[in-house]
Amino acid sequence: MNISFLRSREFFWYWLPPLAWCGVVLGLSGDLGSSQHTFGILKWLLSWLPPLSPDQFNLIHFYFRKTLGHFGNYAFLYFLWFRAFRGQMGYQPGRALLWSLGLCLSLALLDEGHQALFPSRGSSLLDVALDLAGASTAALITSIFWTPRQAAGRNDKFTDPYPGE
Fold first, then answer.
1. Among 29, 75, 92, 114, which residue carries the largest CB count within 10 Å?
2. Which stretch of DSSP H or E encloses residue 110?
3. pTM
4. 132/155 Cα distance (integer angstroms)
5. 51 is a domain residue
6. Which domain holds residue 105?
7. In a domain, 94, yes or no
8. Number of folded domains that form the chain
9. pLDDT tens by residue, the chain, 165 residues
């Protein structure tokens, strides 16, 4: 990889966001993302609601962790990877989809392996499946709504090598 690429605008615009989000996911796969920590954050977020029973709060906490923590994070990560592969690399949609899903799956496996190293965390292949479901849902949404942009003056079908003749 060329050093000038790392300093280029394209790197900061396309590649830094998915790489940074991978860092966030891996940072939260340690003790920082444990149930004890997210419990306190959720308690603070829901402090404006009327008091909840412990069972109600535990159910909300469970769904908060699974939907936002797994499904939502990997859906967002997929969008970031897809955007990088399509926007900067110019990959066709199918190729960008496969690369993006593959990287999301790789990170999900790495994430669960990292969680197994902490006594406050547990790892599960069901969480990997939930992560991949989030990324796959994002892939489905992207395939429905993505509209490719063409560069101004660019014609992908034919470029005349001798214009004006």
1. 29
2. helix 93-115
3. 0.78
4. 36
5. yes
6. 17-145
7. yes
8. 1
9. 555 555 678 888 899 999 999 999 998 887 777 777 788 888 888 888 888 888 988 898 888 888 888 899 999 999 999 999 988 888 888 899 999 999 999 999 999 998 888 887 878 899 999 999 999 999 999 988 876 555 444 444 444 444 554
